[in-house]
Design brief:
The complex is a heterotetramer, with 2 copies of chain A and 2 copies of chain C. By secondary structure, chain A is α/β, with parallel strands linked by helices. Chain A has 2 domains: 7-184, 3-Layer(aba) Sandwich (Rossmann fold), CATH 3.40.50.970; 199-326, Rossmann fold (3-Layer(aba) Sandwich). Chain A is built from 11 helices and 14 strands. Chain A has helices spanning 9-23, 47-51, 63-75, 94-107, 137-141, 154-166, 216-228, 246-256, 271-282, 305-311, 315-326; strands at 7-8, 27-31, 56-58, 79-86, 117-122, 147-149, 171-176, 183-184, 199-202, 207-211, 233-237, 240-242, 259-266, 292-296. Chain A has a 7-stranded mixed beta sheet with strand order 3-2-4-5-7-6-12, with helices on both faces. A 5-stranded mixed beta sheet of chain A has the order 9-11-10-13-14, with helices on both faces. Chain A has a two-stranded antiparallel ribbon with strand order 1-8. In chain A, strand 4, helix 4 and strand 5 (117-122) form a beta-alpha-beta unit. Chain A is globular. By secondary structure, chain C is α/β, with parallel strands linked by helices. In chain C, helix 2 (45-52) packs across helix 7 (210-225). The chains are: A alpha/beta, C alpha/beta. The A-D interface holds A 28, 54, 57, 59-60, 62, 64-65, 67-78, 80, 95-96, 99-100, 104-115, 144-145, 147, 168-169 and D 91-97, 101, 103-106, 110-111, 113-115, 118, 120-130, 132, 151-152, 155-156, 158-159, 162-163, 315-319. The complex binds thiamine diphosphate (2 copies) and magnesium ion (2 copies).
Chain lengths: 327, 327, 319, 319
Amino acid sequence: MAENKPLNFQWAINHGIAEEMRRDPTVFLIGEDVGKPGGPFGVTRGIIQEFGPERAVDTPISEGAIVGLCCGAAAAGLRPVAEIMFMNFITLAVEEFYNQASKMRWMFGGQVKQPFVVRAMTAGGFGAGPHHSSSLEGWFASMPGMKVVMPSNPRTAKGLMKAAIRDDNPVLYVEPLASYKMKMIMPEGDYITPIGKAEVVKEGSDVTIVSIGRMLLEAEKAAAALEQDGIKAEVIDLLTVNPFDMETIYASVKKTNRCAIIHEAKKTMGCGAEIAASLQEDMFDWLDAPVARVAAPFTHIAFHPALEKHYLPDAENLIAKVKELVG
Amino acid sequence: MAENKPLNFQWAINHGIAEEMRRDPTVFLIGEDVGKPGGPFGVTRGIIQEFGPERAVDTPISEGAIVGLCCGAAAAGLRPVAEIMFMNFITLAVEEFYNQASKMRWMFGGQVKQPFVVRAMTAGGFGAGPHHSSSLEGWFASMPGMKVVMPSNPRTAKGLMKAAIRDDNPVLYVEPLASYKMKMIMPEGDYITPIGKAEVVKEGSDVTIVSIGRMLLEAEKAAAALEQDGIKAEVIDLLTVNPFDMETIYASVKKTNRCAIIHEAKKTMGCGAEIAASLQEDMFDWLDAPVARVAAPFTHIAFHPALEKHYLPDAENLIAKVKELVG
Amino acid sequence: MKISKDTKIDLYKRMVRQRTFEDNTTKIFAGGEMPGFLHLSQGEDAVAAGTCSNLTKEDVIFTTHRGHGCIIAKGADLKPMMAELFGRIDGCCRGRAGSMHFADISNGCMGSNGVVGEGMRISLGTAFAHKYNKTKNVVAVFFGEGATGTGAFHESFNMAATLKLPIIFVCSINLYAQMTPKEDHISIENVADRAAAYGAPGVTIDGNDVEKVYEEIDKAVKHCRAGKGPYMLECKTYRHHGHFEGDPCNYRPEGELEKWLKKDPIVLYEKKLKKEGVLDDKQIKELKEAAQKEVDKAVAFARQSPQPDIEELYKGIYA
Amino acid sequence: MKISKDTKIDLYKRMVRQRTFEDNTTKIFAGGEMPGFLHLSQGEDAVAAGTCSNLTKEDVIFTTHRGHGCIIAKGADLKPMMAELFGRIDGCCRGRAGSMHFADISNGCMGSNGVVGEGMRISLGTAFAHKYNKTKNVVAVFFGEGATGTGAFHESFNMAATLKLPIIFVCSINLYAQMTPKEDHISIENVADRAAAYGAPGVTIDGNDVEKVYEEIDKAVKHCRAGKGPYMLECKTYRHHGHFEGDPCNYRPEGELEKWLKKDPIVLYEKKLKKEGVLDDKQIKELKEAAQKEVDKAVAFARQSPQPDIEELYKGIYA
Ligand SMILES: Cc1ncc(C[n+]2csc(CCOP(=O)(O)OP(=O)(O)O)c2C)c(N)n1
Ligand SMILES: Cc1ncc(C[n+]2csc(CCOP(=O)(O)OP(=O)(O)O)c2C)c(N)n1
Ligand SMILES: [Mg+2]
Ligand SMILES: [Mg+2]
């Protein structure tokens, strides 16, 4: 089915889910307001109309039970796609991700699979305040058995959703509210974006920029600006933070000998820490400069827009950091 | 009050709590089985007898509510000391730590304090299996506003407990079941072990070993063995993983130019990642070798004792790693 | 229960003050001057007023993302409150918290909450402190019917009952949890019946009848002050606005809002007070104008308050 | 309800098989041959037997850290089960899970759980799958009275009721949550009364009367298969052993154990069956010997099974 008009991020997710629901009758949608209301932010509009209330299920406000239900349904052969709304609320389901879903297959000696997807939204940039704007993917990147994907644009949003639904492991799917209206012409036909595989979106020889999730926009902006100053940045869109595609990063750093990582989450204990630690451990002799991390500071995200803006990393911070590395 | 006989880790915690309860009537104990039963593993024996049931409160099995209660009681001027038993169950209170306790003071513009302590036990080494043996301090090290302490022996266990109870911030206190029977002669009188300050427990010039929590035993064993081979290791007992005392580590690495970190938690996204990332970022030119991490592999802890033993890092792994760095 | 004339006027004034404040924020928000998300409680005014009117200054409340009414009813100074909604440095929380995470400790609001249900878990501790310190103060924790699905509700009520903590659980049934209607996420008619699961009293009332709320809270407060543990009050009401400001509300059945507007708690009470001769049209007009004036001053205060400096981000993370 | 002779014998055999298995593990564990922690359910045998005897092979169960009885009652093959407790490669979970995290999917045990209450949350999904696939299968989820304090209990029951999922909540009241007695953490007498909070039936019975359990489960199963949503059964019983093997049990009032030993469900049932002429002493002896033989074989199987290789740690983390 060709899609020639530009599609936005929100609809890309929607289409990814709907296509998989058409393809596979074991896929169903569950969460707060995902059915009749069409999603708290409209992402699942039309799904209940096409697939009926059995496959688009509204629940009480019970994040733990929603993810617990996913574990049990997946173990019984279904493929749940759940929504947890703002990622901050995933704090209430850490138990089900960590002790249950991520371990179940291994712990039971392979007796079950855990094919389910949980969507969680990061909302940095909207003044939504301390309980609504966090990026917590780092915790889930620490869990063997879990996968965590961070789409960067409508194309990868749809491709990763389809890959996540087809994956036989629990996948946390992180979607940024700030990208919902981002539009692009989509690839035609049925495609997936493979999980665990980073994409080199711009080649360069002077420095490797590893970008996570919606920070790709900033990375691309920074790369363009750096180009003006004669610095050729290679930009990698990581797409997955569990498992980390270190191969792609290593290959790039072998060329550039320098690396900066940008992510919306806090710098302290963020995914950039793991990438930097691994890089220096495995590529010590290839590095001509420290691996830099451009990320949120060690404080809370504020309601106040200017404070929030300062908190969130952007192209400007990245440019400054890269110039330090290269200079 | 002099204590001249050797005291074990378990009683060191107990004494730390009891002394603070004597000193400050706002300190109270709360959790599952902490009162009448004297603690699920006997750590709080005698407390209810001395201080009465108002100050040693048994609760239903509700980890989220226990930590929530701590937030509310601390905001109202009390100093709760709670117990969550096995650290795996802290998954059920991540919400209260992250969205509530760690943010509350800052978010409310300084209107309240959050002086409370939550004890959580790591149980690696007992065949307790996948739901009982995790080391999850990394998640809490990522939370501004939280403090996380990891005592290494009876002396620091008592000193950190007393410091934690006196601290005006939420403190996660991590105690290893495997250390409960460890004994030592204790310092006399009222002392605290400061939070956020690492201790250099052995000086050396060839390599810095940063040890977290009960891994100190392994670090000391390794250092002794390395000494035999002419390698002088400086051993740092980190004691706190939020905030990280990078100053002490940096000062040491300036001397040794090499560093290995050992912790019981998984390597991936563990505290070692943050330390390594910061070290290479801030001390790039001082490092003669990559910062090494000796930690648990990216899998689950097994019930089977041999598998569990292999999973847990030890002196042997550390020695091998250090020899790589120095060799 | 005989309610005194003074109390009646107090109840009315609280509601008017709440409503005036919220109606003004609606306009200001629509004008783009207020950042973030805004969840308002017009229509549920009687629940907050009837409850808080019967609490002392030392009693405290916890509220939700939809907490303005409760906070004002509890006696908030409107100036720092409005400044907080504007994100200014003179806001109660220095512009860090905004509407959803607001607190005003000195006036007895121990916190709103962006996470549904969590106020209940935290309220346990404050109630515990009251019991521990042998004050007779109580805690009222407000929440919506959606919150009754959370583990927080159950753990909190169960623990409050076990430890005999002085907590009044005040549930405002406004028919929706975001856009999902009550019958799609709750399997019983009256959630106050859930109090029986903990051996506590649970009462369901018309939440638009402010005197009824006041009366029932009176029983609850006495129960709590007597050390008998928690008490639940379920107030059936309605929110006139959407889930958040800007919500198109297309999930509402036709005529629903209109039906409830006829039962507006302020309008109803006005009629009653006039009939009883407690207030006349002139007095009502004066009270409304006074409230508007107070709000105008709060808005002026907020507008002149400076934006926070960037350093505010890093200040006071640790005590 | 008339219970057939075959069913009576089946109930008895299940209990004897459970008990024999557990009594043997007690000895083996005391001998140091079994790693980890062990939580046994001798004394609560009738709850598991009475429930599982009334389930089909396609119905599934979820159980707890104290799950051996339930798993055996559901029809587990004792060999891989025992091998798992020994941590061997022929264990159901390849020696990774042990007693507390055990599962035997092909025989209908979808999992024990080391985290109190979590089996309930997961059971939602399996029940959902049955409903989704329009099978008439039901899910029985076992838990202790301690678990009724968890948010998991409430969220699960509430969601099951809302989505009308076929789940039988089977609560085994053994008087303790670890070392804390029921009255210290539960504020009501009968936790089955909590089912009313969700509009579901809740029944409290003598959990040591295996036929009573069987009869009540019959009603529950019919209710669930008819699509009427969840059902709660509370079984009052007692654990003869400590919380875990090795627990000195000094929290028990004197004489309590002795009192309950007189109400041992197997002893009681033996008497009843003999009186009814269903079984005689000889048959009883034979059945017990057969159970012991089966357990002996399981132990022999476990002992000869290899220890897992280290590579097992890294195998099968991802599908
Ligand atoms: C734990 C959690 N889950 C989901 C949300 C998103 N959310 C915000 S308000 C709301 C509905 C709350 O309904 P109710 O408790 O009835 O309160 P009301 O909004 O009607 O006042 C939801 C689901 C949240 N804030 N917290
Ligand atoms: C969430 C959680 N909290 C605490 C524990 C520790 N724990 C293990 S068993 C138990 C008591 C459970 O009591 P109950 O539900 O009555 O089951 P029983 O042991 O009596 O069978 C506790 C508190 C746990 N495993 N999980
Ligand atoms: Mg509502
Ligand atoms: Mg019990």
